[in-house]
Design goal:
Layout (H helix, E strand, L loop, with lengths): L6 H27 L7 E5 L4 H12 L3 E5 L7 H7 L2 E3 L6 H11 L10 E5 L6 H6 L1 H22 L3 E7 L21 H14 L6 E7 L2 E2 L19 H17 L8 H10 L5 E4 L11 E2 L2 E2 H17 L6 E5 L6 E2 H16 L6 H4 L11 E4 L8 E2 L4 H7 L8 H15 L24
Parallel strand pairs: 1-2, 1-4, 2-3, 4-5, 5-6, 6-11, 7-10, 8-13, 9-14
Antiparallel strand pairs: 9-12
Helix pairs in contact: 1-14, 2-10, 4-6, 6-7, 8-9, 8-11, 8-14, 11-14
Length: 442
């Protein structure tokens, strides 16, 4: 008998996530009302995106007074609605608009105004796209970043947390520390390295901290916020693996989602080329032949960003510049990650997990994430991982739980299933779920 999904379990879990979203909205509304007059203000660029939105929520919970600046090119207005904080719909390429938003965020007139900082998490981030659209990436990431620094300097807001990439370093099989040579291999990384160099020069007099990491994945335990770059345009491994799983769960195992026609969802995923997952190369100098990459979960990212933000407010040296890497020091191979996602989803749905031997058949009809092997992508290194020793020494280590990686993968799966077509469509909950009132068109 073919394996079938327990749709009662799916419906119950997604309805629970819907109630979590209602609770999150209420929590945010309550926190906004209780913001202390002297609470430090934080402007998060890219705050309507995946990383930025989670920083906004965590900042609220830590007693900060956050605002969002986002062009919504890759962000989502629905996230701004969930958080309910002040939103500046501004494109960093437009200096006058950036200065206007910065002046409103940090006006010069009050004699006693709270401390303020900017978290810069906005940028174009697709490596392949950056090689095809070099000028666009330079104008957006470098030009927009310099506009932000100019505006901060103009109004006197001189604290910056730069949410940056570890791709600025020269590739190495050893864990990358902060003393690694900065030698970006693509245009995306080059734009980030340029801003890093500007901040190190202290030309703007800005007290800056840069947190450099490779990949953030997962969702917090509410599971109502997700990574959403579009079905066909997503380029990150774990979201793609989950998309492939969802397509095969619908088409082969009878997965149903409340409020949606399953065949229509499957068609959208099929048009996004999510029937299978293509691994780019299996001849690397690693145990299973696939690249080893570093991944940090959302909770780890938030822990270090909040710790760095607190340090910025506590540190008195205006010229202080700090660069810290975030990572695991070991990483996981591409196939290891895919197989973990496969079995985590199976556990979550009550489907029998696959043995290591069965998983070796990459295109097995039993897999919900069938794998094909493609050609190497030019410039990909065997292994890229970061050494977090400095960050751990300065900020401590986040307390983790057993199977933390698997828990984060499970959260990412349910978050995507909750919004199977992204933020532009309502969540997949029963018609009487209270969360739907936020998505009802008047």
């Amino acid at each position: 008998m073919p394996v079938r999904v327990n749709n009662n379990l799916v419906r119950s879990t997604l309805n629970t996530i819907g109630r979590h979203e209602v609770a999150l909205r209420r929590e945010m509304a309550g926190l906004r009302k209780r913001i202390e007059p002297e609470a430090p203000s934080v402007l998060i660029t890219g705050g309507a995106g995946n990383v930025g939105s989670n920083i906004v929520i965590e900042a609220m919970r830590k007693g900060f007074n956050p605002s969002i600046l986002d062009s919504l090119v890759n962000g989502h207005i629905e996230i701004c609605d969930i958080t309910g904080v002040k939103f500046f719909p501004v494109d960093l390429r437009e200096y006058c608009d950036v200065l206007g938003a910065m002046t409103e965020f940090y006006p010069k007139s009050p004699r006693h105004k709270p401390k303020a900082a900017v978290v810069h998490a906005a940028s174009l981030i697709e490596v392949g796209q950056s090689e095809r659209e070099k000028l666009r990436y330079a104008v957006n990431n470098i030009g927009g970043g310099l506009h932000l620094l100019d505006a901060m300097s103009e109004v006197g807001c001189l604290r910056l947390l730069f949410s940056n990439t570890a791709a600025i370093y020269r590739t190495s099989t050893k864990p990358l520390g902060e003393r690694a040579l900065i030698e970006p291999k693509n245009i995306y990384a080059l734009t980030k390295a340029f801003l890093n160099h500007v901040l190190e020069s202290v030309e703007y007099g800005i007290r800056a901290t840069s947190l450099n990491y490779f990949n953030v994945f997962g969702s917090t335990d509410e599971r109502c916020l997700r990574e959403d770059h579009g079905i066909g345009s997503e380029s990150h491994l774990i979201p793609i693996a989950i998309q492939v799983a969802i397509y095969n769960l619908i088409s082969r195992m009878g997965l149903k989602l409340s409020g949606y026609d399953a065949e229509s969802i499957a068609q959208s995923y099929l048009e996004g080329n999510r029937r299978h997952l293509t691994v780019l190369g299996k001849d690397y100098a690693t145990p299973d032949g696939t690249c080893i990459r570093d991944y940090i979960d959302m909770d780890t990212m938030l822990y270090y960003h909040m710790a760095a933000l607190n340090r910025l407010f506590d540190c008195s040296s205006r010229s202080d510049y700090l660069r810290c890497n975030l990572g695991t020091k070991t990483g996981r191979s591409v196939l290891e990650i895919i197989n973990t996602v496969e079995n985590v989803i199976r556990k979550e749905l009550g489907i029998p997990i696959m043995s290591k031997k069965v998983l070796e058949d990459l295109n097995s009809g039993e897999r919900i994430i069938p794998v094909q092997i493609g050609d190497r992508r030019p410039g990909d290194a065997d292994k890229l991982v970061a050494n977090p020793a400095k960050a751990q020494r300065l900020f401590g280590s986040r307390k983790t739980v057993e199977n933390d990686f698997e828990r984060a993968v499970a959260n990412a799966f349910w978050a995507m299933l909750y919004r199977p077509l992204g933020y532009s469509s309502p969540p997949a909950v029963s018609e009487r779920n209270p969360v739907l009132r936020f998505y009802t068109k008047n």
